[in-house]
Design a protein that fits this description.
Blueprint: H1 2-7, E1 12-13, H2 25-32, E2 36-37, H3 42-49, H4 51-60, H5 77-80, H6 86-92, E3 107-112, E4 120-125, H7 132-137
Parallel strand pairs: 1-2
Antiparallel strand pairs: 3-4
Length: 138
């Protein structure tokens, strides 16, 4: 995108809402070509484009979030400079599946993409007798 913008003589690029708008390398690459990026800088984009990292930062800022594997894990943006320490990041990640047995509840994990590809999956562990009422109660 940066090469095309440079060849076209662009002064600035607004990437829209696709993959390019979530790529933290784009603002830096455009800057190397003397082209202004109309959006957040690379550091902010990298911090907020990572779904796990952005939720850790949101929790530190007091933004309400849904319960997830990283509930309670937080570090402030100014404290970490936009790069979440690995030991903090890993506390929010799921490393193994544990299923609570005996009450008919299922263990479900929603896995989100680390960065902007938008991919998501639902991973069930020993899923059985999933009750809609129980889902909405959560």
């Amino acid at each position: 995108m940066a090469q095309v913008a440079a060849r076209a003589g662009c002064d600035a690029v607004w990437p829209g809402w696709g993959h390019a708008s979530e790529n933290p390398e784009l603002p830096a690459t455009l800057q190397e070509h003397g082209i202004r990026f109309l959006g957040p800088g690379s550091v902010a984009m990298a911090a907020l484009g990572d779904k796990i990292g952005s939720t850790i930062l949101a929790q530190a800022a007091g933004v309400p979030t849904l319960a997830w594997s990283g509930t309670g894990v937080s570090v402030g943006f100014t404290e970490c400079g936009g790069t979440i320490p690995d030991e903090v990041y890993q506390k929010a990640c799921i490393h193994r599946c544990v299923t609570k047995q005996g009450d008919g509840a299922a263990c479900i994990h929603r896995c989100v993409a680390k960065e902007g590809d938008g991919a998501a999956c639902i991973h069930g562990c020993n899923v059985f007798a999933w009750k809609v009422g129980k889902l909405y109660a959560q």
